[in-house]
C-alpha cells in the first residue's frame, strides 16, 4: 500500500490478458484517448483512433501480443502489449488513475519480458501525448510518422531504448 496525504492507495497488480478482458480494455482504451489526448489530437483524430476499439480486430491484437493488464483491487485500470520480442504495441491507462505509476509498472514489466526474450532494445510508436513519458524512461526519438486511421492522419514518433544487460 502507498500512503498519500493520509489516504492509503491500493497497490496495483499485474496479470496476463484474458479474452474476457476485451470489453473493459476497450473502455480503458477509449477513455484514455478521449480524456488524455485532447491537447495533441483534434476531435476527428480522436474519434478515428477510438473506433479501433469497436473493431473485432482489437481483441485479436491483444491476444496475438503478450498483453499485460494492470489492476487495482482486482479491477483492470490499464494495459500494455509487447509485439514480438522488442516492440511496445499498446500502452493505455484509465484517466482516473494516471499519475499513480500504472504506466511505469506496465512498461517496467514489458522491458523485463523483452530482455527475457533476448531483445537488446525496445521500440514504441509513441503518441504525441505519450512521448514525454517514454523520453523520461530513456527512449530516444528516431523518426516522426503519419499514419492513416479511419481516414484521419495521426502523428506519432518511433522511439527506441537500449535495454541493459539482462539481470
From TrEMBL:
Q: Name one Pfam family in it.
A: Acetyltransf_10
* SUPFAM superfamilies, per database record: Acyl-CoA N-acyltransferases (Nat)
Q: Domain N-acetyltransferase: where?
A: 12-164
CDD domains reported in the protein's UniProt record: NAT_SF
GO MF terms listed in the record are: acyltransferase activity, transferring groups other than amino-acyl groups
Q: Which InterPro entries does the record cross-reference, listed alphabetically?
A: Acyl_CoA_acyltransferase (IPR016181), GNAT_dom (IPR000182), N-acetyltrans/Recomb-assoc (IPR052564)
Top-level taxon of the source organism: Bacteria
What PANTHER family does the annotation carry? ACETYLTRANSFERASE (PTHR43451:SF1), ACETYLTRANSFERASE (GNAT) FAMILY PROTEIN (PTHR43451)
Protein name per Swiss-Prot or TrEMBL = N-acetyltransferase domain-containing protein
